[in-house]
Amino acid sequence: MKKIGILGGGQLGRMLLQAAINYPVETFLMENDAECPAAHLCHHFTKGDITVFDDVYNFGKGLNAITIEIENVNDAALEKLESEGVKIYPRPAALKIIKNKIKQKQFYKDNEIPTSDFFITQNVEDLKALTHFLPAVHKIGEGGYDGKGVQIIRTSSDIASGFNVPAILEKMVAIHKEIAMIVVVSQTGETALYPPVDMVFDNRLNLLSYQISPADITEKVLWKAEAISLTVVKALQSAGIFAVELFVDKEGNVLVNETAPRVHNSGHHTIEANYSSQFDMLWRIMLQYPLGNTEHILPAAIVNIIGAANCTGTPVYEGLEKVLEIPDAFVHIYGKTITKPGRKMGHVTILSKEKQELIHQANRILQTLTVSSYG
Questions:
Q1: Strand intervals (E) in 125-239
Q2: Residues of the chain with pLDDT under 70
Q3: 46 and 302 in contact (C-beta within 8 Å)?
Q4: pTM recorded for the entire structure
Q5: What CATH number corresponds to the domain at position 136?
């Protein structure tokens, strides 16, 4: 039986472990919190810091393979483990490109992958010489996630809110749609694509509100999105699951926004809506089994369950029973012991053949289900 480790114990690790019970695999997990959402689902839990070389290296010794649920891991330890024969998904070389937004953006340019124009900045002072490039989006080089580490700089008066560390200033794109493609790469280089998803964001929190799959795009845009996504992933030269987030402008041009080298929020609906979920698929890759079927069973929508403003503490899920009354709605609570404003606490997947029904139920759930706190 293969021994496979997961670095990180949040909701992605939790859902990955939920899928692991279908396979002959011994699971190992490392996280610095023994009460994390995934801790009780693995065979072996190790308390440790995924950013510390010794913790990651000692955890990985003796395992057959390791995957990640967040990019902010110690890649030097993963490189050493890889050199000693441990399979890493994604490969450390790919992770080092993606975890740093400066390297990631340069990677797109070097590989002639369409993306928005950009400048590299070292500090806020650099922004003052780039007022001609505004409006633009300032993204911190490393450490940003879930909308954190992103600042919109519309005019020179916004420059003070920029980042005083190495970052990327990206030209703002007139976006018609934001879509995502989940791309699968096997150990032998075989690829598969999940149908694309439409992403609708909460601009206030810069977080995904809901998404619909398949995306409502023309066949021409679909072909571009698929071709570009495959180009990105093939250039990374790594097996695994990759989520390529894309902008579609009003002229039908498709640009890469960012890539995640792991299972991703934009693929959560695949648990119920597709024959093989993104989580099932990653186990197939790591265990070197045949790839699963990425086709839809039914179209789907996802609504993120987000911690309410001004609420920090033990979570209370208000409106949960009403949501559970909705036919073909599937609730996933992530098991986090503390809620915070804007924190992802769960998601709901809705299935329907009718797009308008998906939109209607997504908005209904957004209005019905809230996460407050005791005290």
A1: 136-140, 150-153, 167-171, 175-185, 191-193, 197-202, 207-213
A2: 145-147, 202-208, 375
A3: no
A4: 0.94
A5: 3.30.1490.20
